[in-house]
Structure formats: C-alpha cells, structure tokens
Amino acid sequence: MPRFTARHPLRVLGVGLALALGVAAVPAQAEPDAEPKVRIFAAASLTDALNTAIERFEAGHDVDVVPVYASSSTAARQVARGAPADLYFSANEQWMDWLGEQGIELAERADLLQNRLSLIAADDETASFTPGDGTPLSELLADGERLSVGDPDHVPAGIYTRQALESLGEWEALAPRLARADNVRAALALVERGEAPRGIVYRTDALASDRVHELGLFPLDSHPAIRYPVALIDPPADGAAEAFRAWLGSDEAMDVFARFGFEAAGAER
C-alpha cells in the first residue's frame, strides 16, 4: 500500500468527501513565491545546537526549516503515527531502528554526532565528582532527595544512565530515588529549578545551562557510545529536505554543533 494513505489520512478523507459532494478535488498548491518547508523531528538535547544550525542554513537557502523537539522516543512514535516529518534526528540508534521496523522508509541514514553523559548539580558545594572512582553517587543525595534523569524506560539519556549505573554497580541503590523526566531537557530543568539537587544529562545540556555545573563525566566504557543518527523520511520532490540533510553533514554544520559541545560521530576521544 502506498505510504501516502498512511501518512496523510486527513488529506485522503478530504478528497473522498469532495468527490462525494460532486466537487472536483484539486490538490492544494503552495504560493509561487513560498519557500519550501522542511520539517525535522529531533531529540530535545539537540534544541540549542540545531536551532542555531537551522538559522545558519536558512541564511543561505530559500528554505523554511521547522523543528519539532521531543524525546527521541516520543518523536519516533509521532512520525510512525503519521506526523508530517521530512527528517528524524535521534539521540540513539535504537529508536531510529524502531522507526524503520514500523515500515517508515529511512533514506540517507548516518550517525552524525556523539555526546557524553554528565553528572550535574545546581549548587557549587561539590567542586567535582567522578562517577566510578569508588565513591557511590548516592552519597551526593541527602535523605529524601532524588536524582533527576530522563525516564530510563524510553528516553535515550535515561537508557544510557541506567546502563552506566548498572555498569558501576549503583543501579539498584539509585533506581528508587530517580526523578524521571519525559526528556533530557526536562531532567535538566528539574535541577535548574532546585527540585532535584543532582541530575544526569548529556554534556551538551550541562554546557547549555548557566544554572547548573558539571560535576564529572561518566566513563566511556560504562555505557554504549552516545550517537545521533539522522535520516530522511519520505522527502518531497522539491529537494529541500535532501539539501538540508546534506548540509547537516557539512563542515559548516559541524562547526555549529561543536560550539555546543557535540563531536562528530566516530571522532577519537
């Protein structure tokens, strides 16, 4: 069955209604001077960097790029349910794999960026703390305090967090004390507002906030590599989505991402 019917049920319904009423169904057309529009569904941790990258791209191209940010899991589910997305930019490979398993055609898929997992605090009482150095992370939490994380059941940052804590032998002690957020930016916000004294987010999130500071990074071998794959999804024929996808892998775009703490996927550490 063509994917048109799955991704655009309201449009199909509109055509059928027009025919039933005896009215010619004429496809809506963009204004002659309207800019092509590209919709990208992206992980919340990409917000600041991708917004800046989009501004740079739009400055040199007559294209309107519209980002939609959510946890990678939420964004993937929205696309699978028919949300009008031209690209999907995930914070882990598993949700990109899942999207392909739902029958969504993924084109020009590639791992673009990589990140680190960071322990953060809202106060400056603890100058530094290296997870895995022998001191339990739970010692940073007083009685009744919780550790802010992306929900380990579906949010990539939370999934990496669980893997890291399991690797360090701290998951069982900390699992009951987690403040689970719907995405990594929500986990960051809990620490920024003082609702949780400590949190685990991506390093890029820690660097993006002036209300938290980074205590330390989790060991690279405590969890799988944090990679960000991107792919085209049923792009329109005008070529705008393909052009933006190609630009995202350019040196110009990588310079933007590097300013926000991202590294190119596969870069040596």
Automatic annotation (TrEMBL):
Annotated keywords: Metal-binding, Signal
A Pfam entry, by short name: SBP_bac_11
SUPFAM superfamilies the UniProt entry points to: Periplasmic binding protein-like II (SSF53850)
InterPro entries: ModA (IPR005950), ModA/WtpA (IPR050682)
Signal peptide: 1-30
Sequence similarity: Belongs to the bacterial solute-binding protein ModA family.
Name of protein: Molybdate ABC transporter substrate-binding protein
